[in-house]
Amino acid sequence: MIILYPECSQETIIEEYPCKLSLSFLINLMGLLQCAVASLILEKPSALNLQWNMQLLLIVCIGICMGAERFIIIMCVKEKGAVYVSAFSPLSTVIVAILEPLLLHEQLTWSW
Predict the structure, then answer these.
(1) Domain extent listing, the chain
(2) How far apart are CA 88 and CA 72, in angstroms?
(3) Which residue in 85, 58, 81, 70 sits closest to 31, CA to CA?
(4) What InterPro entries does the database record attribute to this sequence (predicted)?
């Protein structure tokens, strides 16, 4: 089990932890637990009901994609370092701004 201290960086944890896939799983599991606790506290019980429909399929697909994304980020941090990965964060915002109107037919708005 990893004990996180303020002086630990993401890069040192990735270097020391032997299995990258289980590290990705643990990160996603902790996020799931935090979201579950927040949902139970903040949401009404009727909002937490799920049916077997497109909403549940979307939740599963997003979970798979987020897990794959986390694994890719961990591998990139291992290979190139944390600074290299954070340099591409603004690029992902630009890619989303380009693809969202094309794929989801959302209107792109500009604000000052």
Answers:
(1) 10-42+51-103
(2) 13
(3) 70
(4) EmrE-like (IPR037185), WAT1-related (IPR030184)
Q: What is the C-alpha to C-alpha distance for residues 93 and 70, in angstroms, rounded to an integer?
A: 17
**The token pair that represents 18 in the structure block:** 């032997």
pLDDT tens-place string over residues 33-84: 998 898 888 888 777 777 778 888 888 888 888 888 878 887 887 788 777 7
Q: Output 1-10 pairs: Cβ under 8 A, ≥24 positions apart.
A: 2/26, 9/82, 10/77, 10/82
Residues in the chain: 112
Task: Determine the residue type at 76.
Answer: C
The single residue listed with the structure tokens 């019980």 is 45
